[in-house]
């Protein structure tokens, strides 16, 4: 019997099994999605950007507390200038068009990545979105933008040294506090759309014990049901953390 106020979507999740607190998504396949429709890559990025909202809403319904989305990697600067420019404009437009509603819905925006190297106007927009939503607690939308897992560790090491941390005080816990994701739980599951089986420099440190889920579905087609399917698969996994059961 479906319960009132709970979407049918819950049907696919396994009752009694934990819901992932933190989901990381490698939103891949925008370009191929567009190509398969005879459209320019830019159309794929637009469709992909539009797709974020419905997945975020579904994550809230399911009870996920942190959603980290990989929007732009440190390696993506190597793409053609026009594509990079298009991606930067899309981020800026998304903040402009969506921030009021995200804020009204209690979404806390966080950024993981370097702001150095980002166009100053966009960097300012990102900072003010973070500042405005920092008290919100419905869900954390952590945007990995100009993000690289290795760059993150390098930045952490630099900051550690700058703070004069003593050798004996360096621990996994302390390093975690120096990462862009300080204060967030590690991801329970990393979802990759677009069919590849690699991390592409995403959450290198944090994903040490994440479950991986890859699907051939291109990101713009990855819908609510696809997210629930990923979570159901996660719920069927046996997380042993190196121990014996
Ligand atoms: C992911 O889609 C979006 C970004 C990397 C910004 P792609 O642009 O990588 O799409 P494919 O992998 O070429 O299909
Ligand atoms: C990973 O996708 C980065 C993002 C989704 C933002 P890429 O398309 O850049 O990764 P590779 O090139 O397939 O490893
Ligand atoms: Mg790709």
Strand content: 5-15%
What's the helix count? 7
What is the rounded distance between the termini? Answer: 35 Å
Radius of gyration, whole Å: 18 Å
* Topology order in helix (H) and strand (E) letters: EHHEHEHEHHEEH
CATH fold type: Undecaprenyl pyrophosphate synthetase
Sheet of most strands: 6 strands, parallel
CATH architecture: 3-Layer(aba) Sandwich
The CATH homologous superfamily name equals Decaprenyl diphosphate synthase-like
What is the general shape? globular
Question: Which kinds of small molecule does this entry bind, naming each only once?
Answer: 3-methylbut-3-enyl trihydrogen diphosphate, magnesium ion
Summarize the structure.
The protein is of the alpha/beta class. 40% of the residues lie in helices and 15% in strands.
Account of the 3D structure:
The protein is an alpha/beta fold and about 240 residues long. It has a single domain (about 20-150, about 190-235), classed as Undecaprenyl pyrophosphate synthetase (3-Layer(aba) Sandwich), CATH 3.40.1180. The chain is built from seven helices and six strands, in the order βααβαβαβααββα. A six-stranded parallel beta sheet has the order 3-4-2-1-5-6, with helices on both faces. The chain is globular. About 35% of the residues are buried. The protein binds 3-methylbut-3-enyl trihydrogen diphosphate (IPE) (2 copies) and magnesium ion. The site of one 3-methylbut-3-enyl trihydrogen diphosphate has 10 residues, from helix 1.
